[in-house]
Design goal:
alpha/beta, UDP N-Acetylglucosamine Acyltransferase, domain 1, 18% strand, binds coenzyme A
Length: 241
């Protein structure tokens, strides 16, 4: 039996098994990343063991948060190193959900989701989110600010210097279309402002100095020229109205 019909026929059991396998993989990654944070918490717990009750509780709470933040930074590194060792990436092209490339796409993005759901909101507008996406394969210039957790397919995305990705922007290089996943590179130039909650779809290119309005929807393959301002759903060049 050919590989893809087999994958499609047994899609649900295979997806279930793969999900369980992913939970194990992500648990190990999370476990490695959690160890230093647990060590930090343990140190605080021992140091405060003989303290009076309220100050001990405050010390334990502080130790818990310190341990958590230590975990978040370690998770970024562990996820990045793991993706480099395994050469994980979003593949380019058009392929069925139930295919080798579909599995490759899901496995890679699961690593991004692990970090997104565990901690990425604490890293918005910090250098740590930039480091994370660089480790996941994104090309990012200097002084870039990223204020969103909703990024997928990092290895297919490029961002130039001094660009701002606004709050809760959706930035992805894939779309699900009639049974297939379609991926295409996204290129955002330098000095670009992507407004609050805008959506950037696969194949989009934004020239240097452009502004994307808050809430704009840049449909797939949209090309925004340098210095242009686009707004709306779907987004249009404001100068061309
Ligand atoms: C698009 C934007 C830059 C326009 O600001 P501006 O240059 O000061 O221009 P104006 O406010 O005069 O608006 C120009 C036109 O665009 C329209 N417009 C403005 N924002 C819009 C939006 N988000 N969606 C649709 N149309 C919009 C205005 O209604 C106006 O239309 P009109 O000429 O028919 O009256 C601004 O509204 C915006 O969305 N900025 C995003 C900021 C942001 O989110 N930064 C990152 C997070 S802090």
């Amino acid at each position: 039996m050919a590989a893809e019909p087999f994958l499609k026929r047994f899609a649900t059991p295979i997806q279930t098994l793969m999900t369980l396998a992913l939970y194990v993989e992500l648990s190990v990654l999370g476990g490695i990343a959690a160890a230093p944070g647990l060590w930090v918490f343990g140190r605080v717990e021992r140091a405060a063991a003989a303290w009076p009750s309220w100050s001990r509780l405050v010390a334990l709470g502080t130790g818990g948060f310190l341990g958590y933040f230590t975990f978040t930074l370690c998770l970024v590194l562990v996820a990045g190193v793991f993706r480099r060792l395994t050469f994980a990436k979003s593949p380019l092209g058009t392929f069925p959900y139930y295919s080798g490339k579909g599995i490759q796409w899901a496995s890679y993005n699961a690593i991004i989701l692990l970090v997104r759901y565990a901690c990425i909101n604490w890293m918005r507008v910090t250098p740590f989110i930039v480091v994370f996406h660089r480790l996941m394969g994104m090309k990012i210039g200097r002084r870039v600010q990223i204020n969103t957790a909703v990024i997928g397919d990092s290895n297919l995305i490029e961002i130039g210097d001094d660009t701002v990705i606004g709050g809760d922007v959706t930035l992805v290089a894939h779309s699900a279309e009639r049974g297939s996943l379609v991926t295409a590179r996204v290129k955002i130039g330098s000095n670009v402002t992507v407004g609050l909650m805008a959506m950037i779809m696969p194949g989009v290119e934004i020239g240097d100095g452009a502004v994307i309005a808050a809430n704009a929807f840049l449909a797939k393959d949209t090309k925004v020229g340098p210095g242009e301002m686009w707004a709306g759903i779907p987004a249009r060049n404001l100068a061309g109205r």
